[in-house]
Amino acid sequence: MIHRLNQPDYDRWANQIKRTGGCRQPIHLRGKVEHYDQATGHLLHRYSTTQEPNGVLRVPCKTRRASRCPACAEVYRADTYQLVRAGLVGGKGVPETVSSHPCLFITLTAPSFGAVHVRREKNGKVLPCHARRDAQPCPHGIVRSCTERHSADHPRLGEPLCPDCYDYDGSVLFNAISPELWRRFTLALRRRFAKLNGLTVKALREHVSIAFAKVAEYQRRGIVHFHAVIRLDGPDGPHSPPPAWATTDALTQAVQHAAAVVTAEVKPLNRAFRWGTQLDVRPITMNGDLTEQAVAAYIAKYATKAAECVGTLDRRIQPLDNLGALPIREHARHLIAACMRLGEHPDLAELRLTHWAHMLGFRGHFSTKSRHYSTTLGELRTAREEHMRAQEITTGRLPLFDEDAVLVVAHWAYAGQGLSAGEQLLAAAITGQQTPHLGGPDDR
Question: Which helix (H) or strand (E) holds 316?
Answer without folding.
Answer: none
